[in-house]
Amino acid sequence: MSLVRRRPTASLLAEAVKIIGRKRFEIRQQVSCPREDRQLHYLVETWFFFPQSLQINRWSYTPSHFQQSLKSYIRLGVPVRTLESLLGEAVPDELRGEAEAGEMAPDLLGECRDRLNELLRDNTAEARERYEDSVKLFCIAFRVALLARKKAVLAIEDGRERTLAAYDLTRVVTACLKRYRKTLGTRAKEARRFLRAPAYLYCDEYLSIITTRTLGEIVRGLSPVEKRSTYILASFGAQRAYRRIRYPDSMPSKDGDNELPVFRWSVLKKYVDMPLFLLVQRHSGNSLLVHILYSLIAAVAMSLALTVTFVWEDADFFSAPIFVIAVFAYICRERIKDVLKGKMFSLFGKWIPDRVLRVSDSYGRRLGICAEQFRFAAWDKLPKAVRVLRNRTHFVDILNAFHNEDILYYSKTIDIKELPDPFHEGKNLLLDISRFDISDFLRHADDVLDEAPLIGDERLLPGDKVYHVDMVRRIPHRCGCDLERFRLVLTHAGLRRIDEIKPLFDTTQTASPSDEGRQGTA
Question: Who contacts 78 (Cβ-Cβ below 8 Å, separation ≥6)?
C-alpha cells in the first residue's frame, strides 16, 4: 500500500493519499475551521492529464462515467485526547498526574451513564438514539487515544523506556475498561429490552478486540528481562481470556479461514463509527439557474414563432406560403434552442454543478450540500499556476507535448451550514474521503511492450507498458491558494505507484527535472 502524507499548515487542510488495491486510490482530507464558527466552506479542484493513447476524452468518457467511478464519504473528525481523560473523576492516584497534566475534556463515560439513566426513565426514540450514540462515541475516543498512545510507545528506541511507557499504557487501558464495564454493565441489561441492538455488548466486544490487538503489537516489541513485562503479558492474557469467554466468535483460529471473525470485526467497525458518518444523498432535479436558462432559451426560440405569426396574421391561414413559413419557423426554433443551450451552458457552466449531494446528520437533519463538476478542459483555459506546475520537463512529458493531452477537470465544493460537535469540545473537524476507481482509464491500455531486436549481446526484455497520468490539485483557502501535483503510474493491470511531484504546501517554485525523480510513496 502506497501512502503520501501532508504536513499541516495554516490552510486548514491536511491530506493523505494512498493506493487501495490495484485499481483504486483514495484521497483523505482533514478539514478544520475556527472554534467560534460552526460553518464550513471549501473548494478542491483537480485536473487529470491523460496521454491520448488512453482515449479518455469528451467523446468516449462522459461526466456520468466519472460519477460512477467516484465514491465520496464525509465523516466528522475525532479530537485526540489522552487515555487518562477517559477515566473522568475515577482516576487512580498513580495516574492522576498524567490526567491533570492534559487539557480537561468532557467525561464521555459519565455522559453514557446519564444517557442510560434517561433511557430507563423515559423510553423514547430520541433517548434510545442518544444512549447508543454516547456509547459509540466513547469507543471511538478510546480507539483514537489508544492508537495514538501505541504509536508513541513503539516509536521509543530505548528498550527500557519503551517497556516503561507500555506499562503505563497497559495500566490506563485496564482502568478504562474496568470503569466502562462497572459503570454500564449492570444497568445496560435493564435497557436491553428497549433497544434493537445490544449497544453495550457490541461496544464491549469492539473495545475488547481493539485492546487485545494493540497489546499484542506492544508485547512483540517488549524486552523480556523487564519486570514490568510480566504485568503487560498478564494483562494481555487476561483480555484474551475475557474475549474468548464472552465473545468466542471474534477469536481467530490458526486452522480455519477466519471468515466469521473478520466479518464480525467489519460489522462492529461500521456500527461503532455510525455517529461520525454524515449521510450523503443524491439531490434530484435541476438547480434554479438551470431552470432559468431553460426558460430563457425557450423564450427566445418561441419569439421567432410568434414573430412569424404576427407578420402573416392577415394572410390566408391555409395558404401554401404560410404552411412553408410555419414549418421553417418550427425548424429554426428547435435549432435555436439547441444552439443557445450549448452557448448558455458553456457561458454559465462553472456555476452549474453536474451533481449535487445533500449532506445530513445521522438524525436526518440537513447540514449542507456537496456540489461536483466534471468537465474536459483546454490547455490554454487552465489557470496559469496550474500550467506552470504541470510543466513538461520529464522526457515523457516532452514527447507528449507534440500531442495535446486530454485534461479532465473535477471540482468539489463543500458547504456546511452547521457542523456537528458530538464530542462537545468545540473542535470543528471534518474528514472528506474520495475514492477513485481507475478501471475505465485502462480500457485501451496495452498489455506489454514489444520485444526489441537483438543488438549485439544486449536484448531488452519484455515488460508491462507504463502510462503516466499527472494529477494537479488546487485548494483555495482564506490564507491564499495551495497546489500539489501527483503522478499516477499505471499499467494494464492497474496502479503501480503514486509519485509525489510537488507537495501541497510548497508552490513557490515550479517542478524541475530533479523533482521528477522524487517519489512520495512507500
Answer: 140, 141, 144, 276, 423, 429
